[in-house]
Every structure is written in C-alpha cells, then in structure tokens.
Amino acid sequence: QAKAAGRSNFRIFNEDMLLQANNRLMIEQDISSAIAEHQLRLFLQPIVSIADGKLKGFEALVRWFHPKRGLIMPANFIPDIENSDAIIEVGNYVLAEAVQLLQRLKHKDWGELYIAVNLSARHYLAPGLAEYIRSLLLSNGITAKGLLLEVTEESVIEQVDKAMEVMAELKTLGVRIAIDDFGTGYSSLSYLKQLPFDVLKIDRCFTSGIQENDADTHIVTTVIDLAHNLGRTVVAEGVESELQYEFLATAGCELAQGYLLAKPMDEHRIMSVLDSIHDSRRWPREDMPSLL
Ligand code: C2E
Ligand code: MG
Ligand code: MG
Ligand code: MG
C-alpha cells in the first residue's frame, strides 16, 4: 500500500516536473527567436527628482510581444529563464537596446538622462559582464554614467565575495548600481555597508503603506535615513499618490518612480512627450492622463 502510494506520488511528481521542464524548454527555445525577431521590447518608466519634478532617467522594463500568445509581462517569463543561460541572452539584449536608446536620447535637449536596467543574479555573476558593457558603451559613444544596473539583494547575498568583485569591476567602468526591491530580500546590514552600490530602491510594498499604516511609514523613513547615512541615493518605487509623493519629499527621498508620474511606456510615446513638452526638463505628469 505505502509502496504503491509512494510510487504514484513519484509518478505525479515526475509528470509535474516534466510539464514544468517542458514549459521552460519551450520558453528558452522561443526566447532566442524572440530576440532575433524583435519580439522583446523595452518599455520605459520615468524616474523623477522629487524636490523639483525634473526627469532624471528611466527604468527599462522588458515586454514580450509574442506572435501567438500576445503581450507577455516579465513576471510571466523572466522567472522561468532565470536559472538558464537564456537570461543572459535576454539581459545582454536589453543592455544593448538600452545603450542604443541612450544614444537616441542624447539628441533630445533633456540633459543627461540615464537608463536603469534590471539584471538577474545569474547574469550579474556571469563572466564577461563588465567587458560586454564596456564594449557596448564604447561602440555607442555613451558615458558610463548613462547606465544604472539594478540588482536584487539575492544577487549579492548568495555569493558575497564574487558579488563584491563584480560590483567593484562595474564601478571601475563608471556604471552605477542600485539595490532593487530593497527590504524584500535577505541582505544583512553588514553586507550592505560593504557593497559599493550607489542607489537604494525602496520596494513598492513599503511605498504603498505610507500613511496607511505606521509600520510601513516608519520603515520608509528609516530606510531613507539609513541609505543617506551610508551616502546612498534613494528611489521610492510604486509611488501612486500625491500623499505618498509629499511624504517622500518631506522625508528627504531624492527620486520617485510610479504610476503617479507615469506607467511604463514604449519609446515612441516617451519621445513624443520629450519632443512636445519642454518645461525646464520637468516631467509633465499633469498632462499624462490615461496611459496604456
Ligand atoms: P522591478 O524591477 O521592481 O520593476 C518595477 C515594477 O513595478 C514594474 O513591473 C513596473 O511596471 C511596476 N510599477 C512601477 N510603478 C508602479 C506603480 O506605481 N504601481 C504598480 N502597481 N506597479 C508599478 P513590470 O514591468 O511588470 O516588471 C516586473 C519585474 O520584472 C521587474 O520588477 C523586474 O524584476 C523584472 N524585469 C523587468 N524587466 C526586466 C529585464 O529586462 N531583465 C530582468 N532580469 N528582469 C526584468
Ligand atoms: Mg527594477
Ligand atoms: Mg523594484
Ligand atoms: Mg521587483
């Protein structure tokens, strides 16, 4: 009896695994052709200086326009490929697209805008990343200040020594680094202190609790103070209300990103905003009603 149950459990477990593996394999195979056929596209979400409303840069967020399955959001394919080299293919593609985009942005009179690119742990720790970025910047005539790499706490905590080495290498290039989704991972303060990152991004789950509950409100102010004491800059993610924005201004948070300012948009849309409105480089959030 136990043996039979054991065996059938084993079988079910296996089928499930097979299905998952198969799905993953399908996505991995699809990804290469998706890249070749430009089905992966960068959307951009503005990042704004809270004190004066000026546009500082964008976060690049990838979308997959699949010919059969339609629009696939990153949450529905990035996690599936994060344990394979397909994530490196995607990441390198996103980096290349971002650098080319920076070149097109240079022609706009909007100052030195930067693009933040998300890097998965496997890609961040893969050999040759710094060299790849160096050559991309060089061949496109872009200064390293234009790129900001977003890594999560997991990326730096699993192999601390290696992560430290990579960060130092990237810093030598002049590229800036942000810790993304801060507070949702497992990084300890002793690592945080040692890592030469530039920017700390407060996760949306805390921003959304500002003045909704005491815990999140205190966490946000404390994290801002902590980052400042370490000499880092803070971005609040997921800013959706004027109330949150005002609170962040008072708390001394430098930068904001969120639906209050804009949802991620395609390049065409971004460029037409930059072309049409020119109010001393301030992001025109009042004039951006229903996007997407
Ligand atoms: P993330 O890096 O933390 O990006 C922020 C996410 O929050 C984005 O979701 C963005 O659209 C969303 N967001 C921004 N402001 C607001 C807001 O005010 N309210 C709400 N509800 N959401 C907001 P998205 O584009 O679906 O991306 C999800 C995640 O997928 C990203 O989280 C990032 O971890 C990953 N991702 C996206 N693009 C890439 C990529 O090119 N490479 C890698 N490795 N990961 C990526
Ligand atoms: Mg990010
Ligand atoms: Mg984030
Ligand atoms: Mg995230």
TrEMBL record:
Domain annotation EAL: ranges: 24-278
Highest rank taxon of the organism: Bacteria
What name does this protein carry? Bifunctional diguanylate cyclase/phosphodiesterase
Species source reads: Shewanella sedimentimangrovi
Full-length numbering of the shown residues = 520 to 811 of 816
